[in-house]
Specification:
Elements: H1 4-18, H2 22-31, H3 45-51, H4 54-72, H5 74-78, H6 84-99, H7 112-125, H8 129-147, H9 150-167, H10 172-188, H11 190-198
Helix pairs in contact: 1-4, 1-6, 3-4, 4-6, 4-7, 6-7, 6-10, 8-9, 9-10
Length: about 210
């Protein structure tokens, strides 16, 4: 294990980067609204897309993904950390920051985009992560294109992530991370799951959907 102090500082910085409430700030700056009071009342990219528009939604999505990538690549390198464990811990800290941001009373988003950024960042430095990332993304895309529910695709991909970690024999620390991220995402999607069961969830209707 590398020196503990750099790890502690890197975790704190990763949390703060993840805690940047991009969707909230986007609503305030562009529309003068609290995005949490509109649409699905979530500050993630999907709700920004619906309430404010495609451009802002894409910006929020890319920024939230970037937070996860920065947490697993740039921040560890600043502190001279290269072992998988500190990288994984920084990634989890960023997702926790996004979900429970200190800037909004520890209430935040659902962590899907930031979790994707974490997986992308880890895949850049851990080659064994790449097939896991590919099949997790394929799961999300297949369900979204097939049914049009962002929440369904996100929860299913989160559940599939630990399974793919096992299939591709990922190191234990990555398996543990995948279970934690899965629990984060499922927990934050409780209301979506309830609406899916009741048939009340918002659907993105694509041209080839009936």
């Amino acid at each position: 294990m590398q020196n503990l102090l750099p790890i502690v500082f890197s975790l704190g910085l990763a949390y703060l980067v993840g805690a940047i409430p991009t969707g909230y700030w986007c609503g305030r700056l562009l529309k003068g609204i609290d995005i949490r009071e509109h649409g699905s009342k979530n500050m993630g990219a999907t709700n920004v897309f619906r309430v404010i528009g495609k451009g802002p939604g894409i910006i929020v999505l890319m920024t939230d993904v970037l937070k996860g990538m920065v947490a697993t690549t740039l921040i560890p390198s600043l502190f001279g950390l290269s072992d998988p464990l500190p990288l994984v811990l920084c990634g989890v800290a960023a997702v926790a920051g996004h979900n429970w941001t200190i800037f909004l009373g520890f209430k935040g988003g659902k962590g899907v985009a930031t979790s994707l950024g974490v997986l992308l960042g880890l895949a850049m430095v851990i080659p064994g992560m790449r097939p896991v990332l590919f099949f997790t993304l394929a799961t999300w895309a297949g369900l979204f294109l097939g049914f049009g529910y962002v929440s369904l695709a996100s929860v299913a991909a989160a559940v599939a992530l630990p399974i793919f970690m096992v299939i591709f024999n990922a190191p234990f620390v990555l398996k543990a991370m995948s279970i934690l991220l899965c629990l984060f995402i499922v927990f934050r999607h409780r209301s979506n799951i309830s609406r899916l069961i009741k048939g009340q969830e918002n659907r993105v209707k694509l041209p080839f959907h009936k």
